[in-house]
Amino acid sequence: MVTFQIKKEFQPDFLEENLQAWVRKTFEYLDVNQCDLSIVIGNNAEIHQLNREYRHIDAPTDVLSFAYDMRDPETNARYLGDIVISAEKVYEQARTAGHSYQMESCILIVHGILHLLGYDHEEESDEVVMFPLQEKIVKAVFENAKS
């Protein structure tokens, strides 16, 4: 199950159905079953505060992932964690990259899920694994899940 918190001003652009489809397709691609997570779509100010508090970086960022990897004792479902996305960064990065904000949203959701599953890109040796995988997933997920 995926739970969403989408700031009211961003709700028309960030449809839960699209986000849900991208998460589902990402899980299918990675062969991940019975996982729950939460996705928050906020603004630069909110993600800036979280980035400062948890990463000690005093600037907004596009996506943050908070991995928990816990199991629900009743259902045994795995709770991966939370993904927080700045809608303002989505719009900005989409313009810069020359693609839609939907594509950028998909990229950041896949990126966040990969972090929740333990992938990282702090070291070059990790980056050469994570980013090509992310590109493959986004291509498969976005092409197969867009409405």
Within CATH, the superfamily carries the name: Metalloproteases ("zincins"), catalytic domain
Strand content: 15-25%
Whole-number tally of structural domains = 1
Helix-strand pattern, N to C?
EHEHEEHHH
- CATH architecture designation: 3-Layer(aba) Sandwich
Strand runs, count: 4
Largest sheet, if any? 4 strands, mixed
Helices and strands in order:
Layout: E1 2-6, H1 16-30, E2 35-42, H2 44-55, E3 63-71, E4 78-86, H3 87-97, H4 101-116, H5 124-145
Parallel strand pairs: 1-2, 2-4
Antiparallel strand pairs: 3-4
Helix pairs in contact: 1-4, 1-5, 3-4, 4-5
Task: Provide a descriptive summary of the structure in words.
The protein has a four-stranded mixed beta sheet with strand order 1-2-4-3, with helices on both faces. It starts with a strand and ends with a helix. It has a single domain, classed as Metalloproteases ("zincins"), catalytic domain (Collagenase (Catalytic Domain)). It contains five helices and four strands, in the order βαβαββααα. A hairpin with a 6-residue loop joins strand 3 and strand 4 (78-86). The protein has 147 residues and is an alpha/beta fold.
Features:
4 strands; globular; Collagenase (Catalytic Domain); 5 helices; 147 residues; alpha/beta
Would you summarize the structure shown here?
With 147 residues, the chain is of the alpha/beta class. It has five helices and four strands, in the order βαβαββααα.
